[in-house]
Design a protein that fits this description.
Helix content: over 70%
Strand content: under 5%
Number of strands: 0
Shape: globular
Radius of gyration: 23 Å
CATH superfamily of the largest domain: Sodium/glucose cotransporter
Number of domains: 2
CATH topology of the largest domain: Sodium/glucose cotransporter
CATH architecture of the largest domain: Up-down Bundle
Distance between the termini: 72 Å
Number of helices: 21
Largest sheet: none
Length: 496
């Protein structure tokens, strides 16, 4: 699969990599205070923050896994995109005003206000574990592409990428994250457009043939609408999308922290809507690339060697197309776009987990009176530490088969009950801390069961979780809400 990665491609890739690091270093002076490092002193425009949020959504998982999903199956994951506007509406009316008025930077400070310190710790740790999984998955997907283009080992690519992103995030803080995301989203979108043009031009009988083949194989289908949660039906995607996007816009520190970098509640709301609306056509574009790849290799079967046909499915088909069909120079630009997709998500996660380490643990329990000099130093140190941990996670994920399914499953496991705890606090004012704690324990147990109680021996099959893995987070959320509300209602009746 490897092709000759020419000097022009290498120069473009190296230039982009170094330029991003230098760009991050440019913002070092503006991030010389802890407030500047974490929230840019609330001075950034909403359009830039909106594109940055979009960049967090459009990671390498979208860039590579969405085409792979459409190539293998259909457009069912597009339904996930359609759940963003309802989640953005809830964020606009409830979450953004809450964070702008009642808490400072950490999303999980609200949980402490509502249920006590344990809830803040639970929220922070859940986010940190989910971030590690996401960083590792994205680094792995970047290595997947570059390995097939250059022949460099997966481990080398993961380590170099991890070092680069960690460097500019550590130097420039959140302002470097936001502005590099803006540039990277533009590059990423440009790379996708070029891919579509090459695919349309490569059809032997013209662009219309692409749509004819795709329609015959039902590649534009939104999936099975049967009310079944065992297989990945459209309903599974919709329910997962609603819960996951409520978690993203409502309780994910990657987004909550961006609400604070704008000047007002109105500006923060505008940035959320920019991202939510823009992601719909962007996700459709990457799914179309996967569908187009299916039609392209159906019509040009000779371009897909028989020896590779069985192995080049899913996340590997788009890299193969890049390696074999892109001309010199454009290939280097698209690789830069893939780097952009990776960096625009990893940098945000690194900044956020270092922020939470500082606010929710160090300043909360170890040294509440830490001065600015100490705080900014530790924020940079924590960024490096989490960058190393994320890189190690990426190295551990090199055997993953399907990035999209694995990424969604890990997100559900790590943050499955978190949105439920927030909703419990916002909606059910009568629920007490001990009741919420009991609900969290029940949620964690349900997530553990839904994750590991699969393919059990026949004598234990009555304990098996038959629902699809995308439903793990949904199970955790529903369990937490049902247990928490039930305990609260029972206590109210007893008190009467």
């Amino acid at each position: 699969m490897q092709t000759q990665f020419l000097l022009t491609d290498k120069l473009i890739l190296v230039f982009y990599f170094l330029a991003v690091i230098l760009f991050g270093a440019y913002f070092r002076k503006k991030s010389s205070t802890s407030s500047g490092f974490m929230i840019a002193d609330g001075r950034l425009p909403s359009w830039a923050v909106g594109l940055s949020i979009l960049g967090t959504f459009v990671s390498s998982i979208t860039f590579l896994a969405y085409p792979g999903q459409a190539y293998n199956a259909n457009w069912d994951v597009f339904l996930f995109s359609l759940t963003l506007p309802p989640a953005a509406l809830v964020a606009t009316f409830y979450f953004i005003p809450l964070y702008r008025t009642r808490v400072k930077i950490s999303a999980y400070e609200y949980l402490e206000q509502r249920f006590g310190p344990w809830a803040r710790i639970y929220g922070s740790i859940s986010f940190m574990l989910g971030s590690l999984a996401r960083i590792g998955m994205i680094l792995f997907l970047v290595s997947l592409v570059l390995h097939h283009l250059t022949g460099w080992s997966y481990a080398t690519i993961i380590i170099i990428t991890g070092i680069g992103v960690t460097c500019y995030t550590m130097l420039g803080g959140i302002e470097a994250v936001i502005w590099t995301d803006v540039i990277q989203v533009i590059i990423l979108f440009g790379g996708a457009i070029v891919s579509v043009i090459i695919l349309l031009a490569g059809m032997p009988e013209g662009p219309g043939q692409l749509f004819e083949i795709a329609a015959q194989k039902q590649k534009f289908s939104l999936g099975n609408w049967r009310p079944d949660f065992v297989v990945p039906t459209a309903w599974v995607v919709l329910i997962y999308g609603i819960i996951e996007n409520l978690r993203n816009f409502g309780v994910d520190q990657n987004y909550v922290q961006r609400y604070q970098v704008t000047q007002s509640v109105k500006a923060a709301s505008r940035s959320v809507w920019i991202a939510a609306i823009a992601y719909i056509p962007v996700s459709a574009l990457f799914l179309f690339i996967g569908t187009a790849l299916f039609s392209f290799y159906t019509a040009n079967a000779q371009l897909l060697p028989a020896s590779l046909e069985g192995s080049l499915t899913g996340d590997k088909i788009y890299p193969y197309f890049i390696a074999t069909q892109f001309p010199v120079g454009l290939r280097g630009l698209l690789i830069a776009a893939i780097f952009a997709a990776a960096m625009s998500s990893i940098d945000s996660s690194l900044n956020c987990v270092s922020t939470l380490t500082m606010l929710d643990f160090y300043k909360r329990y170890i040294n509440p009176g830490a001065d600015e000099k100490k705080s900014i130093k530790l924020l940079r140190v924590y960024t490096v530490v989490w960058g190393v941990l994320g890189t190690l996670t990426g190295l551990a994920m090199m055997e993953v088969r399907t990035a999209l399914e694995t990424g969604w499953q890990l997100a559900g496991i790590a943050g499955g009950g978190l949105v439920g705890l927030f909703l419990l606090g916002l909606i059910c004012r009568w629920v007490k801390p001990w009741q919420a704690g009991t609900a969290v324990l029940a949620s964690v147990m349900s997530i553990f069961w839904a994750t590991f109680a699969r393919e059990l021996p026949r004598q234990w099959d009555f304990l098996e979780c038959a629902w699809h893995s995308r439903m793990i987070g949904v199970i955790g959320t529903l369990t937490l809400l049902v247990v928490g509300i039930s305990l609260g209602v029972l206590t109210l009746f007893r008190e009467k």
